[in-house]
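Record type: monomer structure entry
Structure origin: computed from sequence
Chain ID: A
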Amino acid sequence: MDVLTEALASMRTGAPQSVRTDGRTPWAFRLPSTAGAGFHVVLHGACWIYPFEHSTTPIALGTGDVIFVRDGSGFTLADHPDTEPEVPRPEQFTTRPPVGSLQLGGDGALTSLLCGNYHLDGQRPHPLLRQLPEVIHIPARHGRHPELAAAVQLLGSELDNPRAGSHGIVPALIDALLLYILRAWIDEQPQHAGSGWAAALRDPAIAEALTAIHEHPAAAWTVQSLADHAGLSRAAFARRFAAMVGEPPLAYLTRWRLTIAARLLREDDLTVGTVAQHAGYGSEFAFNKAFKREYGLAPGRYRRQSRAA
């Protein structure tokens, strides 16, 4: 079981959307806030990115650089921070699978970007997402994060020269890009860090316990049985787990069980009783009570509302 993959899958509520933007100097445009997480990849050229209010120092981006925006906040992308941004007009967009396109600016140097967002459940994000910085900038550096660099290069190639199969390849690469971004961020964290999800996924004992929870969420886990699985004493395991994951082991277990239940209710037609069993609850009554406490809705009503949205 891949905990990182499972954690992201639990939050996904739809396929990512993306637009290729070709800007010729001078150019600048505003990207409004979106639900989920945003991403920006510089395919060719160079540019700057900064919040609408210019409240922080603009970030200079070059070819191969990647920006990840945890909460989908609005940003301005520009050839230079002094260029007055515009709000793109509908006629500037072209819908052409596998991604849309946007042309703007003058007749100067060309910069090409891929901008988009991943639809993630922001109301109850996985703790991993909550611990991420608001903005992650991963510069293109020779020899660093080769898988991410390869994905960016492949995306650029497929978008520059679409051929048979591009409509399937590009969405798959965009999906994989999210995992490559988070893997790169985890790899950038200090090796000696004793807290946070990056440390948890690198720590053999805590990673083993997380994998056990994700593989067998319905098992009758206790702190002691998870500690045995991790090869630690009960007290040492509980302290280390809480420090790294951000909550005690059984609290995370309960969160994960209800996360699985919510996903099953959204995506499958299993009865509520069967969903309760998959989530590790011995009775439908206990499951209904726990689910309503966490989500504010009974399971059946949650299913109806999520599918009507």
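Annotation 1: The chain is about 45% helix and 20% strand.
Annotation 2: Residues 38 and 117 are 4 Å apart (CA to CA).
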